[in-house]
């Protein structure tokens, strides 16, 4: 309903996953509708039970109705909390502030903490309920994505606290590895399988919080904790789970978050099963066009590349990067379909 030309978009996204393109690079372009209505932040409302999941989905649709999704921009709904959802599955309470969730550390002493995944946990049950409801409410309207599970080290860093976990890599390596193994094998894998099976009742396609789409098993792979550690510690504690996740997926993209994560890029590029890299410079850092040598390196390694860019920088970027396996998400929201369509035409024609 909200993306009438989705078949054309999917062909270009298939080319993206195949490290190729159909005439131009893939683009995510969004235009504001003339009758666009401002909406309040309402994610926290469903978490605090002030509104029902069905009401939340209705408001999500009203938000989608405000925009035209052009080129490879696809309306999607992501069930779950806000980010790092698995951390909530070990907490009796989480802190909801506005549209953000904070997870209080729960591991004070490794010897006193038992890793037990209670499937009756409120937050896991809410995630399932949100996915189930979206299957019924969103049929033929939008795609449904995998929750932002963010397994292994990122979850352990939230449960323990990033600072303490950095010390644990040296002082308690066995406990850390046991924790990441449990998070991945006993929580992420079964939760992923269950949500993926729910989505399969809705569509063969699955989306993610980046707005990508794929058939089969797909997810975003990430390890934001890696910005705090050395390549040696990354190789020992993080890389095995990243490789394991890529191997279980049919399509995968790694969320490379900020300059401090670049030190691990070479190891990521060596993962045969990893299909793509998303580069996120981070708040206050130079935009994508300032990182062209690194972006060329990613393309040269045979990985597809996802970047965000202002509309005015896209032509500069395309003069330097190959359109094959490239997806540019345009940051600007165009004020009209005509303006957005003109931009896409200029890119297609190489103007």
Task: Write a structural description.
The protein is built from twelve helices and 13 strands. The chain is an alpha/beta fold. The strands form four sheets. It has a seven-stranded mixed β-sheet. The longest helix is centred in the middle third of the chain and has 28 residues. A hairpin with a 5-residue loop joins strand 7 and strand 8. The chain has one domain: TIM Barrel, CATH 3.20.20.210.
Topology:
Blueprint: H1 6-17, E1 26-32, H2 43-47, H3 53-64, E2 67-71, E3 76-77, E4 95-97, E5 100-102, H4 122-137, E6 143-144, H5 153-160, H6 162-171, H7 173-200, E7 205-207, E8 213-215, E9 218-222, H8 231-248, E10 251-257, H9 265-269, E11 276-280, H10 292-300, E12 304-309, H11 311-320, E13 326-334, H12 337-349
Strand content: 15-25%
H/E series, N to C? HEHHEEEEHEHHHEEEHEHEHEHEH
Helix content: 40-55%
What's the helix count?
A: 12
Number of strands: 13
Q: What's the end-to-end separation, in Å?
A: 32 Å
Which overall shape is indicated by the principal axes computed on the Cα atoms?
globular
Low-confidence stretches: none
The CATH class turns out to be Alpha Beta
Radius of gyration: 20 Å
Q: What's the overall average pLDDT, rounded?
A: 95
Going by CATH, the architecture would be: Alpha-Beta Barrel
Largest sheet: 7 strands, mixed
Number of domains: 1
Q: Please name the CATH topology.
A: TIM Barrel
Structural class: alpha/beta
Q: Strand arrangement, largest sheet?
A: 2-1-13-12-11-10-9
